[in-house]
Amino acid sequence: MDQPPEFKLYLGVEEWDSVKLNKSHDQIIWKEIIHVPETDDIYVCLVNTGSGIPFISALELRALGNSIYNKTQSGSLVLFNRLNFGSASNETVSVFAHHFQLTVHNFSPRYGDDELDRIWNAYYFPDWKSIQAPYSSSSLSETEFKLPPKVMETAVKPLSGSYLNFTLGGIDSSEEFYMYFHFAEFEEVQDKIRQFTILLNDITIFDSIEPQYMVSETHSTKNSLSGRQLNFSLAKTNQSTLPPIMNALEIYMIKEFLQSPTEQQDVDAMKKIKSVYQVMKSSWQGDPCLPINYLWDGLICSDNGYNAPSIISLNLSSSNLTGKMDVSFSNLTSLQYLDLSYNNLTGEVPNFLAELPSLKTLNLSWNNFTGSVPLALIEKHNDRSLSLSLDGNPYLCNTTSCAGAKKKNKKTVVVPVVASITLFLVLLGGLAILWSFKRRREQNIVVKPTDQEDKALESKYLRLSYSEVERITDNFQNQIGKGGSGKVYRGRLSDDTEVAVKLLSSSSAEGFNLFQTEASFSIYSCIQKLGFPIWIL
Fold first, then answer.
1. Half-sphere exposure of residue 355, counting CA atoms within 13 Å on the CB side?
2. How far is CA 69 from the centre of its chain?
3. Do residues 485 and 471 make contact, with C-beta atoms less than 8 angstroms apart?
4. How many domains does the chain have?
5. Angle at alpha carbon of residue 313, lines to 312 and 316, rounded to 5°
6. DSSP labels for 89-112?
7. Last residue of a domain, one of 407, 435, 451
8. Annotated binding residue at 31?
9. Is 37 part of a structural domain of the chain?
10. Are residues 132 and 224 in the same domain?
11. Within a domain: residue 535?
12. What range does the domain containing 21 cover?
């Protein structure tokens, strides 16, 4: 494409201006705004509108004093033009209005000359006469506006007559302007008087201005100005014996930024997530939710009008996330949908997920989480207030028994059976074997354990952790008996030995004593049903 690019500029979350270049290779375009930020960060975005790739040569930020460029209306000040009157030049490069020609020096005064680094455009107009100060003086900069001496040492006055006229035309009537007129006297007036007024469309807006010798002063409009055409006139008063002068003028347009940025807590959370997991998505720049057409990939945000939006959906599936879940997820308090599937997240499923007040869907499938799922998450899933997906986490226990055991600091009723009543189990095991032999003898089947079998039996009195018991019983999936104090489950050891496990019910009113007494009877009934030697764990 042979056409130069066109694109938009965004400041924060709203459009600030547009950039349109012509085919000239020496064209320089700059955009300037006086803006009071509402957040700690300032985002400047170049937005591709489909008319070429945006580009930027420099981005500069300058701090201004709070007392200058004051205005009564809310909004920021976009530079319309900044004019340096009286600089010698004969090169007319553009027409400012049909009565006002703009001439630009090759080297406009800015930083080095201007402490605030403002760029000043020099003017030439045939009906005006340029005048210059007899000497340079730093006193011209000794105001809150810190005006550069190079600008204030030149001025214009009418070639004849009592007026300096110019027109701001070709503007939109909806646009609102603030004007800053800068003056300094450097002609010896002696017994003469230079006094003038400034009129807008024949209405006086500044009265009896009398510049001081080699001292700068500024007169700014107190309220914004608007109209299809703004006609300005500097006219000498009846008392004045000298015509009006003008040294410099700044013109700004009001720009309202009405849209509030994304909730700061959500912004901070997403920035932390981006940093922790090194998310390399090209769209993850600037504000996460705004502009609405350029929100971050994987996000859905609430539409709150001009009020601050919040993040309600985050999809980071297949995003190469590794490590534990960062606590910054807990700050996304408006989140309704969270998908972290197909990553390599490790560690335990954090409890703070159950505390997200708006969360309705949580997908943690196909990661490497370990331990047990928080009981609160399971309960929310069971009462259907939360859709919970945990498939593909081979080391994760997602049953209520796991969660309940964890909640009780891993003190489980299985541990006393395994460790606390070894003597009782040995005795019970012996009775079970004798009883089995008796039953088989009645069926004309004689079973004679060998010495090796006796040793094998003895070796089976093991101390097992809860997770091991859970593994050998396939998460207590195969119930083979039930008593007043609990259920009996079928299991298989690593050497394929089949066993039965008695599990004390947390709702048992009789407690552990009944469990001890009842265990043998439950196990005996299992022997009758199963017909294999029982190892009591």
1. 8
2. 31
3. no
4. 4
5. 150
6. -----EEEETTEEE---SS---TT
7. 407
8. no
9. yes
10. yes
11. no
12. 1-61
